[in-house]
Amino acid sequence: MKRRPHIWEWTVISIALVFFFFPLLAMTRFALQRVPMALLGRDTLFSRWTIDGVVDIINNDKFVSSLWLSTRLGVLTALVLIALMLPTVLWLHLRVPQWRMLIETLSLLPYVVPPIALVVGVSGAFRESFPWIVTSNYGLVPLYVVLCLPFAFRTLDAGVGALDLRTLVDASSSLGATTLTTLRKVLVPNLWGALASTSFLGFAVVLGEFAISSLLLKPTLPMYMVEAQGQEPQGAMALGLLMMMFTTGLFFGIGRLQKRSTTRLALTEDK
Amino acid sequence: MTEFDFPGLVTPTAGEGVQKGSAGNSRALFSLTLFRTVAPLLPYFIFISVFLGIPTVVLFQKASQPIDGSTTSALSMAMQDQYRASFEYSIKLAATSALIGAIFGTLLALAITRIDRPRQLRNFFTGFSGVAANMGGIPLAFAFIATLGAQGLLTRILFHWGIDLYGSGFKIYNFWGIVIVYLYFQIPLMVLIMLPSIDGLRSTWREAASNLGASPAHYWRKIGLPLLAPSLMGGAVLLFANAFSAYATAYALASGAGRLIPVQIRFYLQGNTITGMGNLGYAMAAWMIIIEAIAIIIYLVLRRRSERWIKR
Amino acid sequence: MSHIEFQSITKTFGRTVALDDFSLTIESGELVTLLGPSGCGKTTALRIAAGFESPNSGALVIGSTSVLQLPAQKRNMGMVFQNYSLFPHLTVAENVEFGLSVRRQDKLRRLERVKEMLELVQVGELGARYPHQLSGGQQQRVALARALAIEPSVLLLDEPLSALDAQVRVEVRNEIRSLQKNSNMTTLFVTHDQEEAVAISDRICVMGSGRIHQVDTPENVYRQPTTDFVASFIGLSDSITVGQRLLRVRPEDVSLVSPDASDSLLGYVKRVDFSGSHSYVVVMLNDRGQEIRSIIPNSHLLNFSPGDSVGVKLSQVLFETPALV
User: Fold this and answer.
1) pTM as predicted
2) Whether the predicted interface score ipTM is above 0.95
3) What CATH number corresponds to the domain at position B242?
């Protein structure tokens, strides 16, 4: 309205900025500076900065293998997530819009079951009959998919909703394309934003997921980080920093992809 | 229609011809159509049933059984004595972080919507909130250990200024420490929840109120806050649900020890304790689900209410 | 009831000039319409009067007070917005009561006044309903009641009919006009619909690009436009070149005669457009293929078929653009 200096707005924002960025600063210092806190002062502020801790941990075998495992799991989760949810959302929009209430409510159920409860339940239910799910590393994938379900549904739903699906499909089939071709050549190209967002988030969730791996004792990246905290605190801190930067980059990417979409809420990350 | 036309084998092209057939044929056609409608959704339904439904059912099943050597169900046991205290602690912590996060998140969202210059500020904050709301787990815990841990940077700075945090009993893994850490993702989450609602407060309402003589304070009291109230409360509830189920952060902060429920569940199920107590772990998990379900339902009801007035 | 005086108001938004030295006096009890296309500055002028925008320079006097330094909530003006102005969480009655409760009148008087206002705009039985349960026309009536309840010195209306259906528009605008006349309320009305403006205004202020083109009664603006912009904006007209002259004429001033008649422009009937209560004959002139319309009663429809040769006579020229040297 009028040209006001917005004093209290800027105060609030400044406090927020300090709150959110100071820990990152502290992390960086911890990871990269070999000065014990008790000795840190004005004269030691710039001494002994080194990336040795970072280098060490990156070369660590256990780190590499845990990273590799988490990456594989992340990619698989993203794939399964899309393979499961894309046809479902497409079908919902195309043929059974009256079932929206049911399908949407189902997609919210994972919020009601915290990761801890989920893994406890899965373990109790399948430990004897299908031990694979608790013994194999890949048994984590279905659990991760459940975790990502709400976000995946909302993202894909918004993306498909923004298309004129009926028209596209009718046009494509009237020109002779089979279902598969329509999917491949018409729908996926138009949905790549939502698909990319879903994949990125699935991947990010898996990379940071701890509760399930913790209970099933699987050597994923977060598990390794906790372990390393005891042995190589600086390296672990550096890893934490790298993780934060990486997921930040991922999410900023998602954010830009979602400029047109309506929701940015995602509650699936394991905290 | 010959005697060889089995109802179940009706083909699409013959479908039209079957219209005049017997009741059995129409029923068959109906169920075939139903099947064809549902079929593509089956993977979704089956997946949810198997990986969400069955675990939950089994969980409650085991939870309603007694722990070895007693007669009451683990479910009711889990809410007594020392276990109840853990629940109360978890609920208190989640509620506190939700309340504080809701207030600051709303204030921050309001501040962001008011600032028009620089224009990128809003985009930046929205993007950052999207990131920070999902931040959590191990890296976040590490970050705050580096900040407010016993050897944390801020701890040291405060000490330098004469404030001895740890001397007065503060620990990063006690109640207020965890609340502060949780705020890191609670506040951005609230920002994301509130931004659309604040945007939905049409400028005409504000102008009409002003035109009718209302001061800004009066507007907020009578119009703005009442309209935002459902989103506010819904957001707070969602924040509660969010914090209540958090595991990794608390675990990492306290290095595995801890009074929070999720950590306790792990404790009881890892076999570190007497065998037979396993059902207690299930019971605690079952209670978690019950509490979360209540929270989510309240949230959905409130969200529906706010969408009635404020359409995006 | 006070008069409104805009004195040399200038308002820019960045590099865009929304209002350029805008001066206008609205007499007490008058309904003046700011009429023009989008972007002409009419809404800006209204919002400056209401206090939602501040001009870069100029003064604004209401009654005998210079009001620019007064914040919006102290100006005691009633305003009706285009839409979405009713508070969604309050009932109709509570909406109308809002301005009164701000002024701390006692409850009994407030309720009486609310009842009075609701009946005035003919929504007496809808007091307990919520805005989303009302039709567009009903909502605007309630908005009007709410604005009038506070006994404002001036009434401001920002395109209040634009969001309504055509038939409802006519009903509501007539109600606004009769209410305004009965209460002798000084009113500033903004619209882009010239038919509306012509129907209800005491005077019309035609605006374009931040400037005033003409301020006059509807009849004068219609019959004697002072610029080609005004001539083309109000009512129907066609622009043709005859010889060296650039003329604008109304269909009712275009008569069709025999092609042999003297002093007539020659052409042929291109088509005949039926328009409900009357019809238009579209004539294609031989001179450069220009089109001109003539209004005819429906009884004469059969006299004209596409292709017929016809002569065109202009009984009156609406506006002639001065020849460029």
Assistant:
1) 0.80
2) no
3) 1.10.3720.10
